[in-house]
Amino acid sequence: MRDILPPESGRWRRFTAVFADVVEAAGYQQVIPPLLEDLGVFTRIGDATDVVTKEMYDFVDKGDRRVALRPEQTASVCRAFAQHRPPVLPWKVFYSGPNFRYEKPQRGRYRQFDQVGIEVLGVDDPMLDVEVIALGWEFYRALGLQQVTLIVNSLGEPGDRSRYVEALRTHFEAAGEQLTEQSRVTLAKNPLRVLDSKRDPDQPFIATAPQIADFYGDDAAEHFAAVQAGLQSLGIPFTVEPKLVRGLDYYRSTIFEFQGGTFESAQNGLGGGGRYDGLVEALGGPATPGIGFALGVDRTLIACDDEGCFAAEPLQLDAFVVDVVGGLEAAAITAELRAAGLSADRGYDNRSMKAQMKLANRSGAACAVIIGEQEVADGSIIVKPMRGGDQVTIPRSGLIAQLSETRTHD
Length: 410
Ligand code: AMP
What we know:
binds adenosine monophosphate; 38% helix; alpha+beta; 5-stranded mixed sheet
């Protein structure tokens, strides 16, 4: 688990703010689920998912409850929906915050990692799938990422999916011991997930596996065709990837993944999502269609570094108050600047003028505001622009106007 320090932490905050701007403009409102949930909320995600079976931080609390730190937030949002039953549908929400998975830490994979995401509950319209995917796409554009690619697939309606799963089971069972041991274990639980294997000995059997498209009924085929037509009409490039199954078991119908152009394939998933029409019901709510995505903050920021966009920015202050007199004067001036909406820091501890000017420089402030004995005596103040230009001595009463002026010209 990592500390995120300045100036990187400022970038995280802007990241979330940009995301909120993009999705709020489309009618999504924030939901803030707890970090800790009843374990059952997550075990209902599926027992063939590593996230649930191997990677969960679960424990017994002081009240003898089995609880877990959330490994993701879709299940929490669906639990919240089932619990609170929002009256107006669709319920369009977004979230951001940390999740916990006991994974092997490496570049782009951490035990505490952040996601931003959206979920929409209560509507089964393919145009909603298009909207959700388009918002993810738009967000990457807003960050300045150019190399993200989009892959989509459909797992069909539940009936189609079941028939496909059985066909896969037959296919992979025929491979017998030629499949890796891990894949044989996965096969017993969820044959779909065998398609996700990156292990070499499994590849020939994955390559010859039945294709989901051959199992779509009319509804699934129509829905998926409408999603593709919608994406095309918005000019969003995508590839249909018939072997895309996604990590969590609850998905059906439309699923998608955004991939970074600069990563090793095991870590190139920047985010993804899909329809999960049975999840609210599994969590005790009414049968409710749902779709959403989650985008990894940590990994997307690595992609930004790789592509040279959305960089961390040093703090920009309007002023740094250099206090050469001590006493209350500098405190009063700093407070006055802040009250006027200007950002200001100051020197402390009666340090030398030289030491404070160094701090002023490092602070990234546009101006140093210098107050010495002479200035206190005659009610003036010195303003020294830090990025070129001459210092001026002005009446103390004109300080705010002078700094606001510098700010507009900066
Ligand atoms: P998932 O919830 O597994 O569908 O993951 C969605 C996105 O969250 C991924 O594409 C990653 O960007 C990110 N993610 C998932 N697990 C981790 C992790 N352990 N560390 C960092 N990012 C992760």
